Amino acid sequence: MLHAHLPYVRHPEYPRFLEEMWLFEAISETYLPFLRMCNRLKADAVPFRLTVSVSPTLSAMLTDPLLQTRYIEHLLRMIDLSDTEVRRTSGDADFEPLARMYAQMYRDCLHDFNEVYKRDITKGFRDLQKSGHLDLITTAATHCFLPLYEHYPKAIDVQINTAILSHGRTFGANPSGLWLPECGYFPGLERHLKRNGIEYFFTAAHAILFSRPRVPYGVYSPVSCPNGIHAFGRDVPSSHAVWSSEEGYPGDVSYRDFYRDIGFDLPLDYVRRWIHDGDIRIATGIKYYAITGAGGRKRPYRTDVAAKKVGEHAENFIYHRLKQVGKLRTLMDRPPIVVCPYDAELFGHWWFEGPLWLEAVLRGLVEHRSRLRLVTPKEYLEMYPENPRAVPSFSSWGNNGYAEVWLDASNDWIYPHVHKAIERMAELVERYPDEDGLKLRALNQAARELMLSQASDWPFIMKTGTTVPYATKRVKEHLANFATIYEGLRRNAVNTEWLTRMERKNNLFSDLDYRLFGDSQRASTRAIRVG
Amino acid sequence: MDRERLEILPFETLKDIAERSGIKPIEHLDKKALVGQILEALEEERSDRECSNNIEMLVKEKKFELNPDGNLGYPQIDEPVLPDTYGETRIVLMLRDPSWAFAYWDLSEEHLAAVVSRRASALTLRVHEPSEAGADGKRFFDIPLRSGDRKWYVNLPRTGRRYFAELVLSSASGEEPLCRSNPVESPESTIEDLSAGTELDYIGILSVAGIQDIDESIAHGGMPQRIISLLDTQYLHLKG
Question: Closest approach of chain B CAs to the CA of A439, in angstroms?
């Protein structure tokens, strides 16, 4: 399964904003190629079933008109850059074909985005769901690392409930499963999921391996939690074959090198025009070299060589899965399920050839259908509704398997403030159990700001050190906005103009009901069924 | 890399960046040498990060990486200031992993004044491990705090146990517990009941799941954390 997620990044207060590039790159390099791949397979009548989680913040951005417009502007810049590159590399047997490839790639993106999807690529996912190829599920509303909010159950409920409503609104059906952000699970979390209609979720391998009691099939069957909903544990060997640059496929010497980007390689004077802030070098997405291997100069990338490798790696993956499943059949009294979840952005963005590999695997699986086939968790549960019962362990797929990535000297300062804001939100619900008009808007916006401060992406970035100042500023701003509304409501003086500005800027989750943060009876009777 | 960009920055800014990167400013370094030192420090930092992050985290990081040194480009102005205190005495305990919890606390004005007015070792973080047998037989250990401390990473002595924390104020007249945290329960990070008698089928399944040398480990009795380490560290470094 694929988990597609980006944190909510939208800055209408600037004409362009650097971190909005995260979205644009992912659309060009991951989401559009993925949709193209699915549609090629569909056109060729290749049977496949994939579970795809699209996070609520990602779908909010994909359906936002401002960001849609900015993506097109970005594409036009990229087409301009790649056309300039075609001219610059004219006559060069190694690089001109590559420059042409990029020029075509960005044009294809523009065509797909504008003509095929009419700027809203969620339509592509919806169509594939309708045709029965994709099972769409969701994740926590702002991708909150839930174990660190274990003692704030209302906050968890809001994350799940908001996500399901948002998903239903975007994709037209309620999700049956949930991707836990970072596979962050703690015993008891399933209660929140079940009351929101979720039937299954995904965990790290050791959630199952360390379960109490031990389960006979390990991760190769789902586990039934005490409340009856199911946990699917990740299979690590199949994951690592795809993730790993050392031992797995993406590091192959003939694949495209992620780091050799013309944004860093070419003279600043030349690339300056397309780089966001003329002085900071950033990646453009145009890369000409193959990984090549240690020592010596990098070789130019060759699409034909890479394509051949893709075929070999797809065969290799299928071969190992068949071997794995063959072995498991001798050890188990029922067909095993091998759960292979990946961050969607691995395919295409990090591993350029990823989408082609995935397509080759899906095509290659057809001939082995009697021994190995793609299935969704929901389908497996329909075949095997009774499963070993256990309590999975607290776990995640982060470093060392628990919470240390998101709770560390670099980011622990966040939690006292966010937890306090959650308590204050509950206080607001108690004081204003049933508001309308301006107060309702303020309360819902407070809830929005609070949720945006909870995104696991911010502590993740602080820990891994990519754009720490931006992540820090985001957390602080959302908390400060929350505080402004909180203080304003206490004094009965909320600045309408400021509130409107905040609503227009952080404008996601139109269904959000602030009352879910408290004990108000009115909130709990809200239906989550979507027609 | 950002050598170009570093070289066009004024010397004072470079010194500031050097300080932020943890380089001790050496006054007689010229600009070129300082740029070199900064680049080295950044490289070391990046390499350290890569060593500690597993491949899922390393790959995830790529979707946020527009520039290998993204931190350099950011002005430090205009960041809201969050309050140092909310003026309320409370303590929260968060579970980090089977062996570590994170405690943070806040003090009311009154309690803070009481702490400050006493000698330095007046405040203690008391970590309780209530026994499962019943109300009797309380077990706890103390961590002495300084008046300015507001958080602590607590090493949990045993897995599979409940813990909670208290802030205790000591004075001439005795001890006064100021507040108590929520409980946390440290998970067992082991495969249950894995022993020499474990059925071969299960050992086979674990082997397919990537856990290879089980027999050896069974002989040594249990595998705390080894599984995660095994799964995690098989593929540690990304080519950079």
Answer: 24
Nearby residues of B77 by Cβ (< 8 Å), 6 or more positions away = none
| Angstrom distance (rounded) from CA A531 to CA A527 | 11
B173 min Cα distance to partner chain A (Å): 31
Is omega for the bond preceding A335 within 30 degrees of 0, making it cis? no
Instruction: Nearest by CB to B239, from A205, A251, A419: name it.
Output: A251
**pLDDT tens digits, one per residue of A47-95:** 999 999 999 999 999 999 999 999 999 999 999 999 999 999 999 999 9
Q: What angle do CA A61, A64, A69 make, to 5 degrees?
A: 105
Instruction: Enumerate the residues of chain B whose CB falls inside 8 A of the CB of residue A245.
Output: 55, 235, 237-239
Chain A residues lying within 8 Å of B55, measured CB to CB: 240, 243-245
CA distance A391 to A188: 9
Q: Which residue of B has its CA nearest to A251?
A: B239
Rounded Cα gap, residues A4 and A27, in angstroms = 11
Q: Is the pTM of this model over 0.90?
A: yes
What is the rounded CA–CA span in Å between residue B121 and residue B140? 18
DSSP line for B162-181:
EEEEEEEEEETTEEEEEEEP
- H-helix or E-strand spanning residue B123: strand B123-128
3-class DSSP state of A185: strand
DSSP reduced 3-state for A287: strand
Q: Which residue of B has its CA nearest to A424?
A: B86
Residue A368's closest CA among A319, A331, A334, A324?
Answer: A319
Measure CB to CB from residue A240 to each of B150, B188, B234 and give the nearest one.
B234
Tens digits of residue pLDDT in A164-207: 999 999 999 999 999 999 999 999 999 999 999 999 999 999 99
